[in-house]
Structure formats: C-alpha cells, structure tokens
Amino acid sequence: KDAVARLAADARGKNVYVYYSGHGFPRDEKPAFAPHDAPKSMPEDSLISLAWIADEFKKASPARVVIFTDACYSGYDREGRFMVAGARPGILKRKSLSLPRNFIYSAATDENGKSYSDSRIKHGIFTYFLAKGLLKGDLNQDGKIEAGELKRFFADAQNYARKLGFRDQ
Asked: What is the pTM of this model?
C-alpha cells in the first residue's frame, strides 16, 4: 500500500505502470492481491484490492494507468492450501471490475483460471511473455508498444501454457 501511495502521489498527468506477480484472491468478489510472504492463513483485510489501487490512482488524475498482474484468483497457495482465514470458496465468484477509460488492466488469467510458471524460462509464463513483448513488441516500429501489439505475446503465453498442459492460463 505504501508503494501505491508513493506512485499515486506523483502521478498527476503522467503515465503509470504497475506490475504485480504473486498470489491473488477475490476480495468483495473483486480481484485482490496477497503479499508473497503472507502467512499461510491470513486475515482477509490484509489483501490489497485492485479496486483500491484504482481508486488511489483515480484521485491523482494520471494520464494513463497500465496494470499487469501475474496472479490467479483461486485463493489457494502453491501447495494447494486455502490462504485466507475464515473464507469460503463460495466467495470466489467475482464481479467484473469497472475501471476508467484511461486504465488498462491485463492479467495472466481470468477469474476461473490459474497462473503458471515454468522452471525452463525461470518466470511465470505471463511475466516471461510480457517481458518479451515489452522488449520486442514494437511490431510496427513507431516507437510505441500498443496494447494490440502486446496481444500477440499474450497469445504466445497461452499457447506455451497449453503445450505444457495448462489450459486455463
């Protein structure tokens, strides 16, 4: 939350880029994030919701906010344990998130999928192909990487995941 507050404090009229890789969980039926070093069974109020992050930036009047997340929203950790104390899987059906027009949100998976990593590429699959897209994504060579140009790399991430047997990335 401190990092978001610092970024938002200096965001007026600027382009802001946010990247998060880690655990996700629906909070109030909307995407939220859990710190990587979160306790095995943490209280729900320690989650950081995407809606809260968006609200913090909206107050600052940025030109554009681009958010990338490499997280799933299953509520389970890598060992298959449920992460939030007292929560029930019934809350995992999340509502769609409404963001302003100047916000772009791109995630590794939808609310029903999982985000995977692969030891051969030493990253999350989404993160790896996002980085490739940011490095090589200016396909029309106009000096800008547009969302449409990144879509090719996200499709590559999906295809890579499917080859590994991960159908929900």
From this structure: 0.81
Q: Residue-wise over 8-43: b if at least 16 C-beta within 10 A, else e? A: beebeeeebebebbebbbbbeebbbbbeeebeeebe
Q: Partners of 42 in the beta sheet?
A: 84
Residues 134, 138, 144, 145, Cα dihedral to 10° = -40
Contact 92, 73 (CB under 8 A): yes
Please, are residues 153 and 47 in contact by the beta-carbon 8 Å criterion? no
CB atoms within 10 A of CB 59: 12
CA dist 144 and 166 (Å) reads 31
Q: Which long-range contacts (CB under 8 A, 24 or more apart) does 11-16 make?
A: 11/57, 11/60, 11/61, 11/62, 11/65, 12/60, 12/61, 12/62, 13/61, 13/62, 13/63, 14/62, 14/63, 15/62, 15/63, 15/64, 15/65, 15/66, 16/57, 16/62, 16/64, 16/65, 16/66
pLDDT in tens, 67-85: 999 887 666 666 666 555 5
Query: In the block, which residue shows the tokens 């547009």?
Result: 146
Q: How far is CA 72 from the centre of its chain?
A: 8
Q: At what angle do helices 2-9 and 50-60 cross, to 10 degrees?
A: 20
